[in-house]
Structures are given as structure tokens and as C-alpha cells.
Amino acid sequence: MSPALVAACLWIVAGCVAGMLPARDNHWRAARVLGLTGVPILIWLVATSGLLAGAVFALAAASILRWPLIMGARAVRARVGGRAR
């Protein structure tokens, strides 16, 4: 198993553990850290293991970080001119 794949699997486990821990800020601090560390891991994974492994990791990351993605999409939609809920 490649080191990039091991790092991606550890990132997914860390995201699941962070979601299980209690947090006063509704896990936004963990989401920021996971987002900042997930992007380089995704690039490293695509560079070493290919697009399929990167796509699987990106889907898993989107599943773990779904609320930051939803809120970001709402912010972009509001700035572009659409209605934000």
C-alpha cells in the first residue's frame, strides 16, 4: 500500500473520530483542520495512485465534511446572485 493511500485512510479515520468527540463549536475547528490537511493529501494521492483513488477519497471527504461544503455552496450562491436559504 502506498504512503499516500495510508495517509488518506488515516485522514478518514481522524475525521470520523473528530466527529464523535464532543465540541462546543459544532466541530467547525476540526472541519477547518481536516479541510486544510485533506487537500494536500488528495493531490498527493492523485499524483501517486491515480484519479480513481483520488475520486474515492474526494467522495469520502465530501461525506465527512458535508456541512462545510453545503454552507460554502450557499455562500457562493448568495454572492453570485441566487437565493440562499
Automatic annotation (TrEMBL):
One family name in Pfam for this protein: DUF2484
Domain of life the protein comes from: Bacteria
TM region positions: 42-65
Keywords in alphabetical order: Membrane, Transmembrane, Transmembrane helix
InterPro entries xref list: DUF2484
Keyword set includes Transmembrane helix: yes
Protein name: DUF2484 family protein
Organism: Palleronia abyssalis
High-level lineage: Bacteria, Pseudomonadati, Pseudomonadota, Alphaproteobacteria, Rhodobacterales
